[in-house]
Design brief:
29% helix, binds calcium ion, disordered N terminus
């Protein structure tokens, strides 16, 4: 595997760009060869059909790599011993980049192996997933796999390609949630992460043991509003969390997009986010007010005295920002503890029932997330914290335990990986590439050295300007694409790892800039990106040059309306109305 870091030179970046184009144009032709070219005697493709591997795909929503201890963030926000088992017993990928850093679009890319502009799910505002298109679960189902998805779906239309689907409508609720079981609405008592794991284990116990399976366990946590399992409310014992170096970022050195967005701790974070909001009349606390009286009492016991102390302190300015960051990290890491514990239950089941040896276990998130960096929460940006998502894979006999990969991989590659592992041909229309050679520790020489990124949803919610870009191991060229306000930024991650100063237009970067601009053009052609972005890609709200719109109205962009059971921003089960 490669270990490229920030040592690339301008010349290397140029060579990289050219190599990438060659690799991309050759991809369709080599897909069949990739499937057939396994030279490893343990290749699952050469095993009898009955030995095809099971796939357990564990996916979370907005889980920052900084909040997985295996990733070694300097702040050490939380211990995740169970998640770390996957890295310890398998491979940790340090540069898994998402195609479009937002929930629905990421999920659509995972199952189709295609970018948003081709799979049709561009944003969470007006996109609906076309379930008639080719997906990897459908192909595995057709090849004899049992298929199931349990937990968050968020693609607006009913799931297709799954024998069993037990999903949350829309964003879902943390406490005592409503779920939909193959089209039927069900009320589930308990905490959402526990329920998803319970249903996952129940499905495993009742499955047909004569056939391989694909099991997708999709957590709601740790999505906003970061509502913890009540048993973990005091788990951090009022720890004071270290702050990220960019917590007080004032966006100097960057253009209007970083100044105009509305996803910051200072101004955007609400009383519901910080748990300062009062309980709803006749309902409990929390975003959806669904706590039982006993649960409410536990909630109040934790939050009430701390909220009273906060109010007495009358904090302002940066001190208030610091308090909100601490509360945010408390709640966020507590939801992560719930994930960690429940992933451990699933891993234990696989181990104890002899399934681990022939089961690929993946842990990933639909995107990364800001845990206070740049004063942000949320995602969307091409910048590191939201572009990079955790990805860890365990497959005994194929993946060497305790290994780390630093190649550029993507959620664009997941479908192709699972298909190749199952011995199912990868359709030529899929745009990623199987990770199986990387699993084996043998990255092909023509592996991608640059990556195309796209983000469309605008202006509501969060007012992050649509942008596209190209990312290499060292550089990042960003092209903001709001009509009439287009501009570029360029970052050198070797000299500016926190991406604080755009060097676009600087003399020293003239050649780098020219090469990256050419590479962006080449990648867009290779990935069939429309020359002009249709306005519907941005969502329901009109684009007016960014002067008005959704800024300041975060979390309220959901369109009320009749949804099918797989949707639900405006469903009648208490859907949140959020689009993020
Ligand atoms: Ca998400």
């Amino acid at each position: 595997m490669t270990t490229q870091t920030a040592a690339a030179t301008t010349a290397a970046a140029t060579a990289t760009a050219r190599a990438t184009l060659t690799a991309l144009t050759a991809l369709a032709a080599t897909t069949a060869a990739l499937v057939a070219s396994s030279d490893n005697p343990k290749s699952p493709n050469q095993n009898p059909k009955s030995a095809r591997p099971n796939i357990v795909f564990i996916f979370s929503d907005d889980h920052a790599y900084a909040a997985i201890s295996a990733y070694g963030d300097a702040r050490h926000l939380v211990d995740t011993p169970q998640l770390d088992r996957i890295a310890k017993e398998g491979m940790r990928f340090d540069r898994c980049l998402v195609t479009n850093s937002i929930c629905g679009p990421s999920r659509a890319t995972v199952i189709t192996g295609k970018y948003s502009h081709l799979n049709g799910f561009m944003n969470n505002t007006n996109s609906r997933f076309d379930g008639s298109q080719t997906t990897f679960p459908k192909l595995l189902q057709a090849a004899g796999y049992q298929t199931a998805i349990i937990g968050k779906w968020h693609l607006q239309t009913d799931p297709t390609g799954y024998d069993t689907w037990k999903i949350l409508p829309g964003q879902g609720q943390y406490y005592n949630p409503t779920m939909i079981f193959n089209g039927k609405k069900v009320s589930m008592p308990g905490y959402v992460t526990d329920i998803i794991a319970d249903l996952t284990l129940d499905w495993l116990k009742k499955r047909d043991t004569t056939r391989p399976f694909l099991l997708m366990m999709h957590n709601k946590a740790p999505h906003r509003h970061w509502e913890p399992p009540l048993r973990y409310l005091d788990a951090d014992h009022d720890r004071v969390y270290p702050e990220p170096p960019t917590l007080m970022d004032d966006y100097t050195g960057r253009g209007p997009a970083e100044h105009e967005n509305d996803m910051n701790i200072r101004h955007t974070m609400t009383d519901e986010d910080t748990k300062l909001a009062k309980s709803k009349p006749g309902k409990g606390a929390g975003k959806d007010g669904r706590l039982t009286p006993a649960q409410q009492a536990e909630w109040d016991k934790y939050y009430d005295p701390r909220n009273a102390a906060f109010r007495a302190a009358n904090l302002k300015g940066d001190d208030l920002v610091r308090w909100k960051y601490q509360r945010y990290m408390h709640d966020y890491t507590a939801t992560v503890r719930g994930i960690d514990e429940n992933v451990g239950r699933v891993l234990d089941y696989l181990d104890k029932n002899g399934l681990s040896d022939n089961t690929i276990v993946i842990y990933s998130s639909d995107q990364g997330f800001y845990t206070g960096e740049h004063n942000w929460f949320d995602k969307r940006w091409i910048f590191e914290e939201s572009l990079r998502t955790p990805f860890m894979a365990r497959w005994p006999g194929v993946i060497k335990p305790g290994t780390v990969n630093t190649d550029i991989v993507s959620n664009l590659d997941f479908a192709e990986t699972f298909l190749e592992a199952a011995g199912v041909p990868v359709p030529a229309e899929m745009q990623g590439r199987s990770l199986l050679p990387l699993f084996r520790g043998a990255t092909p020489p023509d592996w991608r050295k640059s990556f195309y990124y796209e983000y469309y949803e605008y202006p509501s919610p969060h007012h992050v300007m649509p942008h596209e870009g190209v990312v290499t191991d060292r550089y990042k060229l960003v092209h903001f694409i709001v009509p009439g306000r287009e501009y570029y930024e360029l970052f050198d991650l070797q000299t500016d790892p926190h991406e604080l100063t755009s060097v676009y237009g600087k003399f020293d970067y003239k050649t780098v800039q020219k090469d990256l601009e050419a590479e962006l053009t080449r990648l867009k052609a290779a990935y069939k990106v429309p020359a002009t972005i249709p306005p519907r890609f941005f969502g329901n709200k009109s684009i007016d040059g960014g002067k008005t719109g959704g800024g300041g109205k975060t979390g309220k962009g959901g369109k009320k309306g009749k949804n099918k059971s797989g949707g639900g921003d405006g469903d009648d089960t208490g859907g949140s109305g959020e689009t993020d």
